[in-house]
Amino acid sequence: MTDHSRGVFRRIPSAFTAGLLQKPVRLRLAALFAAMALTLLAIGLSDLSQWDELSASLSWRMADQQAVERRIVVVDIDEKSIQAIGAWPWPRARQAELLEKLDQAGVSLKILDILFEGSSPDDARLSSALASPVPTVMAQLFSLSPEPVVHSGQLAGALPFPDCPRPTERAYGYMASDDQLRTPPFAGHITPLVDPDGAVRQVPALICHGGKTYASLAIAGAIAASQAVPELHSGVSLLDPPWWLDLGGLRLPLDDAGHLRVSYQMPRSGLLAVSAADLLQGKAPADLLQGAWVLVGATAFGARDAIPTPQGRAVSGVEVHAQLLSAMLDDRTPYRPLGAALWSWLLGGLSALLLLAALRLAPRSAAIVLPMVALANILAIFGLSTLLLLKQHLWLGWVAPGLFTGFAATLLSAGEFARLRCERERLYSHLASYLPEPVARQVATQEPCAQVRATRCEATVLHADLRNFSAYCAGRPPEETAMVLHLFFTTASRIVEAHGGVVEQMVGDSLLAVWNGSAPCTDHGARALDAAEELWRVCTPQLPRIASRHVPPLDLGIGLETGTVLIGSFGPAARRTHAVLGEAVTVATRLQALTGELAHPILIGATVARAASGRTHRLGDFLLAGLTEPRTVYAIPVKYPAGHLRLVFDAEAEQQTSG
């Protein structure tokens, strides 16, 4: 963990850390509410339904690609027909001949995706062909924009509604067949609804113009075939659409605006088509057209009837009508039910529960587990939405719950990362209060080990001890003695660190500090001597003053020596200890023990005395306990505070008197 990262966490407000980061439940709930807020904000700022529309092309590709629609046949005015007959539009006599050929083939319904604009000398023959016993549906086009307003031809096929019902689209202009042409009673509009990407995914089922209601071409074809009287009913249950259009045996679901969604479940290859040229030349299969519903439309390049759909970027408009009719006959027109909003909330709640469960099972691997669970959730949501669309024909959408899942996983991961970092920072801070900070940093970044991990270096060791502390503690409350130790260790640690040293151990009433050990330090001998003098000067006045013949006074003894030491951790992996080993440690400890006998509070060894710059005087050679050779001992002269000397002398006098 770097100093920069620790600084970042130290800048986190303490109230926020205590109230949120240290409370996993609160943190996770806050992340989920934030994800919900971001999702609602995204819905408000952008139209997420358009993303559902764009992704639906993937859903349609998952349908049965081997399906074939045999009840509806497209008579295609294709490139082959243009080359054989001539450029489109053909003379109306030729178009009348095409309709007559369809009657001869035995079709049961003719739906013409053709606008007959203007008059022609052949209108009489075309009128005769349109008036045949086979039901025929004409096309007409409405303008949904107020500008420009065009009124061309004579509208036909108004539905028997007393007034324009609620779920209708308002039209401002229209283009219909010429009023001189005798048209059949059935007509349907071919007005598309174009999405922002240019594709056609919905059509207005009903359009209102001049107080009358007109159906789409596909609906008009179903009315012509069934001779049913259309009725409108509103949805009741959560799985119902906002509106039902009842056509006798057929029920078409409409949304609140009266739009009919196009089902592209039937593959383009499954729509049967016959070239108009083959029909005119008598080459069309007779059994293919017998009893079929026929859609007549132009797909040739010059016909200007190419529109983008989820199945292709240049699809003839007649295919859209064929898809509508096919879905209508199979009762698989997709619709958005009244309870669609609950679907998003339900999926979002399930995703949140799955993410929380994953976080509960693997709290330390949130950064890896949560993205994987979120991705699996999003794929499952998309798959379930696709399954309901293809099997139950419910248009529910998946982007909003998927977006919530992504936001929730991201925020939960970030929250868990911040919480774990905060916990690690707190643990590191506690660890650094029990071990030297450089050692704590190494422990926090290394795996547990059962081997010796130590560093050999040349360092200066200081050993300080409160003399007579055990006698002082006798008969005193532990709180009082604890405060004495607390004050001593706090002051001594501050002084040692201020002079570049590191407090390696605090055991009992003694302290062991090292310069140039765990942390590098230049001129470690001189800096250790300065620290020893300040330690004596500051800590001695803080010691409690005792004037009693039964309790010797508290005093501070300090020993210093420079030499080779080994600093590191030892012991089994389950229980390690940090220690400083070496002859310099032994010498410093023994010198500290001699301070009381030699009446000098600061004693130093020969090696560190070289850095004293004349501040020491030689006391002589002494055989220190535990060593085999005598060592030259030096002292640093210090002055006792006046009151301290008087109390000491008084205590000595009492001891002599009592003796």
TrEMBL record:
Gene3D superfamilies: Nucleotide cyclase. PROSITE patterns: GUANYLATE_CYCLASE_2. It comes from the Bacteria. Keywords: Membrane, Transmembrane, Transmembrane helix. This is Adenylate/guanylate cyclase domain-containing protein. It holds the Pfam family Guanylate_cyc. The keyword Membrane applies. The chain crosses the membrane at residues 27-45, 342-361, 368-389, 395-418. Residues 460-592 form the Guanylate cyclase domain.
